[in-house]
């Protein structure tokens, strides 16, 4: 399935920022009539693109505008397959819920959903995810890995690595940390989260949805009171506004790269990279397991090759914690 | 949610086979007008119930008919919760697919789906499940166990135990065997299968659908050619027709019992029972893994506490096989 926006994306790719491209060039390259080109240029302008048109010279992109639309994202993608089929919505209940529906209708691997806002954004364990419009990224991507369901949790760590890498590109030289298993923190404040959902038979994965929420440009004063002390955004941390379209594209590139690497070389490189973001080794930690009130406390010695958190308790036993929240 | 059929089920429960029950009694017991009772009796007749009505005496059930309807199943249920919410359809694409939709719309644990026929019945790994109308049982039930997703495969073995037990009730003294992990065989021929599908986060199950197909009354000559040599039905094996309504109710009771036991006492009793149905210990077996053409061959030594198949290969190593098909 090719999204309708594909032709628009191709036009945006042909347009340049410094010089004019003639309507005839576009028309020839894309096998469109001149009037069809003109109509699409007008559509792109309505979609937020600042396009200058001059008689006998053609069209030119202005650099000042930063549109965040299907076309903008599609035309800036650097991936092979990830987000090449993109469902971009103004508002959805939850990008994961929509992605799940698409997956059940046989959407192919790499299909992505973006929403400018979510009316019922979800975090782990049914928690809410604050999803105001126009400032943050809310996206979900469909994977269909040919691995056993028991190895699926490793994909959450993979997503954390890809996400951490994409964030650091935009806030350099500031660094991020991961909070086991999959939150991304800047200076101890949460800036992004991952919700992995799987549909499987006991020995076969049908699909995995990786849902990602990233606080990009939300201002501290716009955060709900309960998040004000514990959350931040890329903009708050770095002092620079983030181009949402370019961030989404970087994230998809990073996800695609790490996913391909893990399929070809196994999980070890992902794990090694994840460990570079993890700053709790040697520290005292407390983990609540599965929301059951049970807690394990001790010195964190790292994560094992399955991604389980390792904790040395007071009686010198190393415990593996496979699920829970670090308090 | 109470199904509309509930009142009908209550009427059927009040009716007796040997003696008459007056319309007034039913009317009082269920707080219905006499004319409402009369309308419902007529509805039940259309649904397949043979109900005799006599002036001044009331209503009586005839024993000869064996209806297979929502009302028939609901009124014969002996369970606490399983199938108490029942979606009974003449034909659906797949009971598992419908159950999944219901689960995503927050259907409660125990909600069940029955279809008299499936247009796209599914077995494991996307294989087809032959689902002609009116002769076999096709049902799915929604579970929401508070266990880690890594333990989900044990529920497939649990379903196999419950199913084996229900089948043996109807074909005694003939016995069944299980084929690892979850087919039920009579004299080496497949009579029933289970398709378990799960929706989960890495550390939390949202829901599990247990789909069960049982060849109850299909005749050997009605089996498709490719199944004729390898499949059978309860009727073919025992020479007796099976009451589909009663079979469904026994199955739900058996599932509910084993599920409650495993939640209260762990998986050991299920495993012990499963082993009594398993007849391959000490035999040479070959297992294809995950449809990948990889095969493990050797002497089967049993299953371990996770339900994995144990095979001693020629170099005396015990291999654990967690997924695949015994050839």
Query: Which residues of chain A form runs of ≥5 with pLDDT under 50?
Result: none
Would you identify the CATH architecture of the largest domain in chain A? 2-Layer Sandwich
Distance between the termini of chain A: 44 Å
Which class best fits the helix and strand makeup of chain A?
Answer: alpha+beta
**CATH class group of the largest domain in chain A:** Alpha Beta
N-to-C SSE string of chain A, H for helix and E for strand: HHHEEHEHEEHEEEEHHHHEEEEE
Strand content of chain A: 25-35%
Keywords:
homodimer, 327 residues, alpha+beta, Arc Repressor Mutant, subunit A, BirA Bifunctional Protein, domain 2, SH3 type barrels, 3 domains, five-stranded antiparallel beta sheet, 32% helix
Brief sketch in words of this structure:
2 copies of one chain form a homodimer. By secondary structure, chain A is α+β, with helices and mostly antiparallel strands.
Polypeptide structure, described:
The structure is a homodimer of 327-residue chains. The first copy, chain A, is an alpha+beta fold. The first copy, chain A, folds into three domains: 6-61, Winged helix-like DNA-binding domain superfamily/Winged helix DNA-binding domain (Arc Repressor Mutant, subunit A, Orthogonal Bundle), CATH 1.10.10; 77-276, Bira Bifunctional Protein, Domain 2 (BirA Bifunctional Protein, domain 2, 2-Layer Sandwich), CATH 3.30.930.10; 284-326, SH3 type barrels, CATH 2.30.30.100. Chain A is 32% helix and 26% strand. The first copy, chain A, is built from ten helices and 14 strands. In chain A, the strands form three sheets. The first copy, chain A, has a seven-stranded mixed sheet with strand order 3-4-5-9-8-7-6, sandwiched between helices. In chain A, strands 13-12-11-10-14 form a five-stranded antiparallel sheet, with no helix packed on it. A two-stranded antiparallel ribbon of chain A has the order 1-2. In chain A, strand 11 and strand 12 (309-312) form a beta hairpin. The radius of gyration of chain A is 22 Å and the shape is elongated. The relative contact order of chain A is 0.11. The mean pLDDT of chain A is 90. At the A-B interface, strand 8 of A face strand 8 of B.
